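task queued by scheduler; priority normal; single chain, no ligands, no partner chains; default sampling; output format set to structure tokens
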Amino acid sequence: MSTGQQVLATPDISPAALAALTDEIGSTAAEYDRSAAIPEAGLRAAHRGGYLTASVARRYGGPELAHRDVARILAAIGEGDPSVALIAANNLAAHQAQALADSWPGDVYTEVLRRSAERPTLVNVVRAEPELGAPARGGLPATTARRTADGWILNGRKTFATGGTALAYHLVWASTDDTAARIGHVIVPADAPGITWHETWDHLGLRASNTHDVTYANVTVPQGNFLEIPLRDGVYRDPAAAAGPTSFGHVALYVGVARAARRAFADFARTRVPSALGHPIADTERIQTVAGEIEAQIVQAETLLYGTLRRLEAGEDLAAHHLSLIKTLIARSVVAAVQTAVAALGNAALTRRHPLERHLRDVLCVRVHPPQEDTALLAAGRAALTDRPAD
């Protein structure tokens, strides 16, 4: 750590502290879901405990928590409010990437950390485009960075930019106008002239994530703010096309949603006393079996999540297509857990005033994070059919 480097708090990741974080963030989740406003209260709570900078490298003055501990944080936040967790996951991933690559200009990243010590200072990679769709499925950005004597001029429109106006910095996926175009991310301060937000986000789930469209019109940035993505074998391969340890933060937050659904199911079962039954439905074997199925799905998801990250931390080399497949299996488990709870409770669980209705909408969003199920299965299937067992 260099002299004068900002020292960031080490978050408390004890079970009691994470449970308190869940409860505080969860207390406003339904309100933000209805209003679709930026979940400022939840973000402040996450910032106050140092959870938004948990992945900052030690050499920058951060705690540099392991991927497994970051996943625990995101599961706890996701159990409270997955919109807050998605914004936090993107921010933590940006710091994890910087810890690995050290690609940001030193003065810019120092400023990010200085501001992060004072208030939520959010970073997100802004990638998807209206015409192209998700970059992980292939293609190059229409958004362009034109070289000037002093830096770059950025132009383009992006869609599904999570965090909206709460972001402090955008990492905008773009191609340069060089003779041999380069692909990378442009660091754009959120207050740069030429940025226009379009309130397009009116979604089934994660409604408070503010995943709106944004336009960049002649936005100027310094030369060093272009972070190139190196070609592999002379070809551009999108980094999101296969899962890596950082990407497990996204499925972790939905493990939290499944836990929240488990809690909502149990609360309902313990208090619902049909007149024909005369006692809580939690006392019936039918509901107890359903609770067991929900528990089985959550245990499966948690075991895959934390077990995989533990193996990676131990230095085990897992193939990218296996990591993508594991993410798919976790996604299936958390969706199954919530759907099982909803199916058992019927109309009550689909009523807007009941939290299970929100948990169902939110958990379905796990399927949109790259690599998506079909691409993960295709990669795993191709590998299985081409790999030969050892003699």
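post-processing summary
- Strands lie at 122-126, 144-147, 151-161, 167-176, 183-189, 195-198, 212-222, 226-228.
- The chain has three domains: 15-120, 126-228, 242-386.
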